[in-house]
Amino acid sequence: MPWLGGGGNSFFGQGAIESSSRTTAGAFLAQGATEYLVLLAVVLIVALVSVALLGFFPGMASDSQITQSQMYWRSASPISIVESGARAAASNGNTYLYLRVRNVGTYPIRITGIVGADGLKATQFWGSGCGAPITNVNISDYFYLGPGEEKYFAWAFGFGTTCDWEITATTGSTTTRDIGGASSVCQNSTASPGVLDYKSLGFEYIQYVEGQQITKRQGGKDWIVKCLPPA
Questions:
Q1: How many CB atoms sit inside 10 A of residue 209's CB?
Q2: Cα–Cα distance measured from residue 17 to residue 7, given in angstroms and rounded to the nearest whole number
Q3: Helix (H, G, I), strand (E, B) or coil at 188
Q4: Please, what is the Cα angle at 142 between 163 and 171, to 5 degrees?
Q5: How far is CA 204 from CA 17, 92, 117, in A?
Q6: Which of 14, 157, 160, 199 is most buried as measured by Cβ atoms within 10 A of its Cβ?
Q7: What CA–CA distance (Å, rounded) separates 36 from 31?
């Protein structure tokens, strides 16, 4: 019965082919798994490097974070920050603010302090011009705002301001005109002036409602602004 032998050889040959196919498929699977692990390792390394860079440059903030912060404060109530800026002074490295605020509420208010993180607040500014004496001046003496009224702090910013009412941003708070608690301040560097970043900023104020004086606090939100080159 020779056909049986021939048939048997055929079956054995088919088995060898199937075995070879399984071996090839296994090799492809192993190669795919290896490539996946390599790609995963690359992704993890990139992620770790990104985290390390963010930790190394704590003053970095994305454009989207800055935009969101500015949008929030423009729509805040009753005290809205409608314009802002910051820069380091080339002479001493201090960070000075340009801060234009508006009363968008329906009642008059009197701002008494600007509060940074950890409750570190400024209650005064350094006055010069626009009727303020050249000395420390209480914010509450000059920042009474009726509904829709605007006032500002400024120092040599070139925004068309005429009053030189100086207030500074610091990581700590050493004087009554420092807004303390900033996570980063402006750098005395033309090439890389950095950002002024408050994880928490707010205002203390008195609101005048139908003959009543109500003391309030607004804010506790992020405020971030790109620093101008030092001047």
A1: 12
A2: 15
A3: coil
A4: 75
A5: 83, 29, 13
A6: 157
A7: 9
Would you give the distance in Å from CA 179 to the centre of its chain? 16
Question: How many Cβ atoms are within 10 Å of 177's Cβ, its own excluded?
Answer: 22
Considering the entire predicted model, what is its pTM?
0.73
pLDDT tens by residue, the chain, 231 residues: 444 444 455 544 555 545 555 555 555 555 666 766 667 666 666 555 454 444 444 445 578 899 999 999 999 999 999 999 999 999 999 999 999 999 999 999 999 999 999 899 999 999 987 888 889 999 999 999 999 999 999 886 666 678 889 999 999 988 999 999 999 999 999 999 999 999 999 999 999 999 999 999 998 899 999 999 998
- Determine how many CB atoms are found less than 10 A away from the CB of residue 202: 21
**H/E element holding 115?**
strand 109-115
| Sign, CA torsion 112/117/120/126 | negative
Residues in the chain: 231
CB environment 66-99: b (16+ within 10 A), e (fewer): beebbeebeebebbbbebbbbbbbeeeebbbbbb
Residue 118 tokens, joined = 């950890």
